[in-house]
Amino acid sequence: MISDNLLKELVAFRHERDWEQFHTTRNLAAALCVESAELLDIFRWTNDAEIKSTAEQRRHDIESEVADVAILLMYLCHDMNIKLEDAVRNKIEINRNKYPVEKVKGISTKYCNLDKGN
């Protein structure tokens, strides 16, 4: 997933600027939500037919917002000693159990509604 060298570079960047003091768990989580919203904002008022064109035209902006989200997530994982790869693998297993292929293939029904015929 994310290389150790990139994480070290990112943590050093933050440390050189003495920004750890601002990066509480709550502040990082809040900033992560804000940056995710900024990514979504790129597509606001875009209809489905325009999404591909918008994505192509705004690729630089999208990459910048994706980087902001990734940086904040990396800080949060680092500070909370969460191994992102392990967390993702664990979540895949949880989702595998919630969403068995034979029940969900080709549908987007939430797991709690699978047996309700929705």
Global outline: globular
> Can you count the beta strands?
0
| Series of secondary-structure elements, N-terminal to C-terminal | HHHHHH
What is the oligomeric state here? single chain
- The CATH architecture assignment of the largest domain turns out to be Orthogonal Bundle
CATH class of the largest domain equals Mainly Alpha
Tell me the Rg in angstroms: 18 Å
Model description:
- By secondary structure, the protein is mainly alpha-helical.
- It has 2 domains: 82 residues, Orthogonal Bundle (Helix Hairpins), CATH 1.10.287.1080; 36 residues, no CATH class.
- 65% of the residues lie in helices and 0% in strands.
- The chain contains 6 helices and no strands.
- The two termini are 35 Å apart.
- The relative contact order is 0.11.
Keywords:
118 residues, mainly alpha, globular
SSE topology sketch:
Layout: H1 4-16, H2 25-41, H3 51-57, H4 59-79, H5 84-98, H6 101-104
Helix pairs in contact: 2-4
Structure summarized in a few sentences:
The chain is an all-alpha fold and 118 residues long.
